[in-house]
Amino acid sequence: MIPRTRTRHFRGQIFYLIKALVSGARATDVGVFEHLVAQMAGTKYASSFASGRSALTALLDALDYPPQSTVLLPSLNYPAVPRTVAAAGLLIHWIPVSREGLRPDFDAVDTAVIQEAVAVIWPHYYGIPAPAQEIARFCRLNDIDYIEDSAHALGARVGGAPVGGFGRAGIFSFETSKPVNTFGGGVIVTNDEFLADRLTAIRDSLAAPAAGDILRHIIKSYIEAFATNPWIYSIFVRAAISGAKRDCRSDFLEESADAPQPRPAAALSALQAGAGVRRLAGYMRELPGKRRRWKAVQGLLDAAELSVALDADSEPNGYMTVAVHSDARAVARAFFSRGVDVKMGYMKDCHLICEGGGADLCNSLENELFHLPPGTDLSPSAFEKYLSLIGDTLRDV
After folding, report:
1. Residue 259 above 80 pLDDT?
2. Per-residue pLDDT tens for 30-61?
3. What sign results for the dihedral spanned by CA atoms 208, 83, 196, 149?
4. In sequence order, what are the beta bridge partners of 46?
5. Which domain holds residue 19?
6. pLDDT over 90 (residue 255)
7. Rounded to an integer, what distance in angstroms lies between the CA atom of residue 389 and that of residue 393?
């Protein structure tokens, strides 16, 4: 079985963790990690926090918008984002998302709403760049802050420029399932010196997670890595989800819409930062290969006319593929029967589960999107067989 996702660790990680837990991690790794992430995002400043959600909480605190200000969010979203915005005392207005390219339909938003808005938070879905230049231009014309939700997109580029630096701020996540795993962790990047100073002051006032909390993240990460090993997945997980796949239902591995809640701001620990420092160099070396394999899989989706349209100057990081089909769960069932577990239900139709204006104009996309594993960990020969299997399945569906 090819699992829908993989949780990976860097070479020498166990030795690093034992040493850091016993002798203490190097406090200087926090600054080094922030510098490396800012460098990858092409920004001057970076501030680290205990998670992506924690980072968003800190960013909204630093921006200090007046209570009840309006924030524009895409209706297709990770539910923790609108919930964090609402928890900060801000109002949400939903922007419709196009099926063709997962692009914002700003024309559907009333001019009066745009004039009142203080920010747009738009994601680079699945590591695939959003039309960042277009969104940045819209925000400049309307004097609105552009915040890039780059949680999936470390290393992705638009027009040769890395994502994260097109707006006033960008957010990266380093949770256990993200491209770089630091056992929790989030970073805000910016070129705005005033905002950077505020974020630094907030970060310095916060405590890092307790050792027990970090240890739970580490244990969770190793359990995920064990469970997503192809052999373990094939023997145990496949049987547990086969009924749901056969009936085109959600399975227990899909995250509940109720699960992702806001998190209070907390600082990144030195141990987590050290893990990030040690993983980033390897991640950068792997990016070209990830992109090549992503393009090969996505090319088959293009040929089947199921892929999401990308701008010519977009350069994904290869984290996830994405395709659209009116009956995506039937497609997932077809792939599952041939040994490929397709990811579903990652992003949600948040206009249906969270309060906000403009919900009546938004498309429901959650059950039309599916994600084939990019196959970046397969051997060259196995990857060729995987591509053949994808082509055969797509012709059948």
Report:
1. no
2. 999 999 999 999 999 999 999 999 999 999 99
3. positive
4. 189
5. 1-285
6. no
7. 6
Cα dihedral sign, 19-24-28-31: positive
Within 10 angstroms of residue 359's Cβ, the number of other Cβ atoms is 17
pLDDT of residue 68: 97
Can you count the helices (H) and strands (E) in the chain? Answer: 13, 14
In a domain, 153, yes or no: yes
377 inside domain: no
In this prediction, residue 377 carries a pLDDT of 86
Res 397: pLDDT:
85
CA distances to 277, 286, 318 from 9, rounded to whole Å, are 13, 14, 17
Q: Supply the pTM of this predicted model.
A: 0.95
* CATH at 41: 3.40.640.10
Mean pLDDT for the stretch of residues 126-132: 93
Complete DSSP assignment for 28-58: HHHHHHHHHHHHHHT-SEEEEESSHHHHHHH
Count of domains observed in the chain? 1
Asked if residue 149 belongs to a domain, the reply is yes
Q: Does a structural domain hold residue 157?
A: yes
